Here is the input.
Amino acid sequence: MLIALAQINPVLGDLEYNTGKILEYINKANAARCDLVIFPELALTGYPAQDLLLNDQFLDAVEIKLQEICLVIGDTGVILGVPMRGINGLYNAAALMYRGKLQYVQYKSLLPVYDIFDEKRYFEPARERKCMAFKGNKLGVTICEDIWNDKDYWNRQRYDIDPLEELVQQGAEIIINLSASPYHYGKYALRTDMLSKLAVKHQVDMIYVNQVGGNDHLIFDGSSAVVNKVGTLCLQLNKFAEDFVVFDTGELCKRVLDETGHEDISWVYQALLLGTRDYLYKNGFSRVLVGLSGGIDSSVTAALATAALGPKNVMGVSMPSRYSSQGSRDDAGLLAENLDIEYRLLPIENIFKAYTELFNPEGRSIMDLAEENIQARIRGNILMFISNREGQMVLTTGNKSEMAMGYSTIYGDMAGGLSVLADVPKVMVYRLAEYINREREIIPQSVINKPPSAELRPDQKDEDSLPPYQVLDQILKAYIEEIKPINEIVAMGHSRELVLDIARRVDAAEYKRQQAPPGLRVTSRAFGSGRRMPIAQRWRFK
Amino acid sequence: MLIALAQINPVLGDLEYNTGKILEYINKANAARCDLVIFPELALTGYPAQDLLLNDQFLDAVEIKLQEICLVIGDTGVILGVPMRGINGLYNAAALMYRGKLQYVQYKSLLPVYDIFDEKRYFEPARERKCMAFKGNKLGVTICEDIWNDKDYWNRQRYDIDPLEELVQQGAEIIINLSASPYHYGKYALRTDMLSKLAVKHQVDMIYVNQVGGNDHLIFDGSSAVVNKVGTLCLQLNKFAEDFVVFDTGELCKRVLDETGHEDISWVYQALLLGTRDYLYKNGFSRVLVGLSGGIDSSVTAALATAALGPKNVMGVSMPSRYSSQGSRDDAGLLAENLDIEYRLLPIENIFKAYTELFNPEGRSIMDLAEENIQARIRGNILMFISNREGQMVLTTGNKSEMAMGYSTIYGDMAGGLSVLADVPKVMVYRLAEYINREREIIPQSVINKPPSAELRPDQKDEDSLPPYQVLDQILKAYIEEIKPINEIVAMGHSRELVLDIARRVDAAEYKRQQAPPGLRVTSRAFGSGRRMPIAQRWRFK
Here is the structure.
């Protein structure tokens, strides 16, 4: 069989656009005389459509579009991910359509409700699994989570059933998996390894078709793949971009990729570009504003935005105060020059003075927390003022380590439409900076070298308030991503006092994070829907 | 049997405090020589503990506290709601303890994942249901959702099984339900009616014990109740306050309450007081700041805060601009006088001028959206400045109709720790104002009479930008709470153009709402975790 993989980037809820895109790829497959073209999970709606799926009018429109697509399908069969209403409710379905007709439907069996997933909120699970007979082949069609429950591969089985095993027992020769599997750093290696082990165990070819694109905080990496029954990766589609590849199932045993993907910091870089671009475009924006402090976070954010959107669509705004060092001012300007972006200098001194005159008896600064925060808030206001007047989206620049510790000003540096680095730990921000500078110095070396500072009071340094980032990031990863007990984190070589202090500060900053803009997810556990914590709670680790 | 109902208000995650509270009520029941005392669902941890439940160290601590409680239990049996680890994972459990021993455990069978609920994220469902034999009685113990699946009472069955029916078939004589059932306006009548119908249908006494208290956006109303087997409400505990009541099961057939609850606007009022008070106290705050514009929303917010916290703990801040009418300035001052709260007057003119000088070539106002928003943001900054310096929490004052339409300034009037009216539609805000003025004029009549205005430009009125609130609120309720198709909303008597415009504006404001502070939930569908929508989506109703 000649099979095409259509790794598309749908726009959430834009059925018109997505249908057009699907028809375009069906035509390509037709033109290549393919037997079958396979699309990702929920390709027609985008993933996750969330509570749009509760609206019957939306589901009616989905049905109409599915019929429209079905009618034009000829000799190239199509497997498409789509929500479908059944007897017991809504299903996350894979529809096999051929010659104008819906031939088979397989619903998703395993519905994840951990991390960022809420699938049981929307979908009923499949009650049975059947192979699809197509042109003399027995296809075992699964959807995303359906193949992530192998009892040998994982320490524990999350679900009672194993759809993959069932389909193989029914005689499936090819396992097809439609996915919308969000990216995080390290996932690619895990996924490829698992696909390979499953193929060998069950002696089947595995075809994995993943969605690509950014949807709010989630980034889908694509990286669709085919693994043959001896576990060799024989086909690998683009990462972080749409792709379309045709292959012959008869040739799979002979294929070996010369080079398989090796996940390094460039993947995070590409993920952030895609996430930024899609969040902008899918929201109808094309231009952004970044406040440039001369520090590492805003420099990396501006460099990412410039790579994602082009220099004409990025404006850097420097908003120095009396506490801004000359070095920082120079670095901000130099960065803008290196990036070739528009640059504005708007000192905040007069506005700051208007506040101190309102609040301080003698009008002089007394340098308390209120005055530190007001500086950040004036900057947030200036950016939003330009945004409201000129129509750019403001990007915030905080990183995950700061967001974790609440080392940020709510309505100040946290004000904006998208937080590009919200899930990037500080140490990884430096790695991104090095990657950005891989060919020439874009981020001035002095930005990378100087100790991080918020510059909200004289001689302030991050390390006055925070442990060294190398240490902090290790503890944060264990606490947030791995949910390790305190004893285990201490056993990694940290003092109990420090670990408890960090845990306490992470918990206390929950109220800030719940008012943060969406942050692009690149780790296995990001703040937001992947980590749902109450604000008014008093659990304290010991 | 002499049974005590212990309607407590636990603090999320504060196992020490909750254990103390539980022991205190066990002692009361002991002193009253009760046979049994019943606590609400997940009383030991509070509800919803969210991702705290993913942490093994937290669950270890819960186990230790449960043992501690168990050991002191004597001749008064205790039924307590608590998370429990079992063979297949974590369960939402009801534990019957007696004479120092855990006698029976019943896990929750039906785990809701709609609206604000995420229970399948944390819990496994019970695989079986068994009556508990206790002092010669067969008790059928259920947890919250377990009794909300009667096939006769509801049009559809959400779940395959009906735990209540099973327990009755096993011979249960008394049905006990441990709940943590969040309040919304109208729920009390529904719940009471359902309890009564179920009691009659199954010919059993129903004992319903609900949690009370505010946890972030959720407010639990308590209102625990006993309904006898002929469907009569014989016992009704406090609403919106802790309570402890002892009754004799042998007497139930004779009891009829003189007066049953009738839900009116006073319930919403009490819900908001409890929600405000608990959010403050449970977060370690005691004082609040409210920006007083002289409008209805800030007046009602300040009045609610004063009733909740006492006048000494509320400060009103008036921040007039060049566009503030004299009437509004006077009304703000008069309100503060009527409430007997501290009042500060901080005009924003000088700060506003510092912005226009920075941005406008001739320093003069050009009255665009950027300048409208900066006024609101300066006010937000002033409140946060006072908060940072003096330690009060800022309450935001926007109502549900505004939040729906995006008729608010992000980082401006949306800046604060808690939004008291976020789920109160504008028309209901007026009903609250009337209720607040029921005995004497607290909110000046002129505030109630004048047409709503944001006063961000000369002669601005809400109705320049929004339909009349009577119409708007009807459409918003149908669209947001009832998820009605557009055709049905139009059929209620509205123009299609208007309905589509409102739907579009609600969808477009999603980005603002996702950066809003928690808002107290008083309707059947609030923004936040009860309505999960993507931001970057392009579905448009037709």
